[in-house]
Amino acid sequence: KGAAAVEAPVPRVGVVVFLLKGKAVLLGKRRSSIGDSTFALPGGHLEIEIVSHSELRSGESFEECGARELMEETGLGIEKVEFLTVTNNLFLEEPKPSHYVTIFLRAALADPEQVPQILEPDKCDGWDWYEWDNLPQPLFWPLQKMVQEGFNPFPICSNS
Ligand SMILES: CC(C)CCOP(=O)(O)OP(=O)(O)O
Ligand SMILES: [Mg+2]
Ligand SMILES: [Mg+2]
Ligand SMILES: [Mg+2]
Which of 35, 83, 89, 97 ranks highest by number of CB atoms within 10 Å? Predict the structure, then answer.
């Protein structure tokens, strides 16, 4: 008898943001079925705005999604949002298998003085700024993989 067919998870799109401040990046400790208790960039699911059962408004852009997720999760306003890279991430170890195509953006604080708030305490233990050459452990594995491969999210001529 054949093994039961395995349901392949439908790929979803995640948009995460390297919010940079000097040589530091904003990270939060996740409370989630995916990457629980690991340090991850702020961000989340690319959403289609469902207005009613019969009307979909046009979906959000990557940049709009990044800015929305940052506002929802930290209350921070961001600017100079740029596309950096994309990765293909299969989460097969998690309780429920999932598959994310993850869009990585870079941004700066609109107000450099603004302080992040923990607006979703059930999803994040807290936000903090971490120097890129002294990142906390454990990192959320898609980010860990990029760091190990030498990814650098900072602008080349960063004179900031
Ligand atoms: C798993 C990740 C790459 C994409 C989903 O991110 P997330 O779990 O932070 O999602 P939300 O912020 O939308 O809840
Ligand atoms: Mg979110
Ligand atoms: Mg999120
Ligand atoms: Mg979301």
Answer: 35
Asked if residue 102 has its Cβ within 6 Å of ligand 1, the reply is: yes
Name the DSSP letter for residue 140.
P
Q: What tokens were used for 52?
A: 């009613």
**Strand pairing report for 78-91 and 124-131:** unpaired
Q: Please work out whether the CB of residue 44 comes within 6 Å of at least one atom of ligand 1.
A: yes
For residues 121-149, one letter each, b for 16 or more C-beta atoms within 10 angstroms of the residue's C-beta and e for the rest, the string is: eeebeebeeeeeeeeeeebbbbbbebeee
Q: Which of 68-77, 88-97, 111-120 has the lowest mean pLDDT?
A: 88-97
What ipTM describes this predicted complex? 0.98
DSSP code, position 110 = S
CB of 87 closer than 6 A to ligand 1? no
Cα(46)–Cα(59) distance, integer angstroms: 8
User: Which amino acid is located at 64 in the chain?
Assistant: E
Are residues 103 and 62 in contact, defined by beta-carbon separation less than 8 angstroms?
yes
Whole-prediction pTM: 0.92
